[in-house]
Predict the structure.
Amino acid sequence: MQNFVYMKDFYKSLKPKETEAFNIKTYFDIMFDTLNSMFDWEGLPESMPARFLEGYLHAFGHVSVGKINDVLYCGQGGLTGDVDAYGEGTEVLLTTPIGSTRGARSIDMVYGRNNDSATPDSILWLTVHYLSEIAISLDCNITYARLLPIPVVNDDKTKVAIEQTVEALKAGKFGAVLSDNILDVIEGDLKQVNLSDVKNVDRIPYLSRLFDDVLKQFYNFYGQNLQTINQGSQTNEDELHGMDSTSRILTDNMLKCRKELSEDLNRIFGLNTSVKYSRAWENEIKSTDARAEILEKEVENLEDPNESEDQEGAEGDDNDRTD
């Protein structure tokens, strides 16, 4: 609880630029952890935790694996040495904080890819940027949608009296005004400045929807076909599940590359590793396959409507005979 209070006070103390950086880091941490949880590894040595193996793949697009002082590690690096017919290095370089090593690719060392193009998940940064910008807009609209008239007075005594009265109203407390001047101010029509506009509250739902759409796009890219419907939008079933298949393209390719990495680790270093989708992705695949089966049956019925009519006619004949 103390840590929660500390975080709340810490966030409130941040300056605008610091708040923006904090928001970016928060979104990045959540979404990077999401990517790191896509696959479940088994059989990796203690010196090479899955979170680091996955972290390098997502952040750099590739990972190098080799032995330093007879201990197997993964880390940054890449292909180096003489190139093959496709321009790729025939050696693998591994660099870690405790040392570095290099060796022949697929013989002494392993080079793993995040995807076929060995590229990092750069869309994460683009998504984080948009989410942070939307969060700033939300914060501004929430703040400036408050009904907050600012009284204009001519002396400090009246200023203090009004501020104390406003605080008492916010707290639901009864209080008396000690300034005689305030009567003159009120009777003379109290002047106010309005820097906010309550109509700004109408923009908040649109920003919230935009936030959801950006987040949905990110997860759709990585196999989690989020089903969110904005009120007032016309969305049919086909549109709702339109990315069921396309959202599998990238993730299936990523799994293929990891299985190739697992096979190389087993062959070169005598391990018994395996990799598969984690439970959240497995559940999504099962749901997608179930929806695909239902859709396939509906398409079959549309292609052969006579079959359905024949069945209905047969049922009618049976009923007639019963009567």
User: Anything to note?
Assistant: The first strand starts at residue 39 and ends at 42. The chain has eleven helices and nine strands.
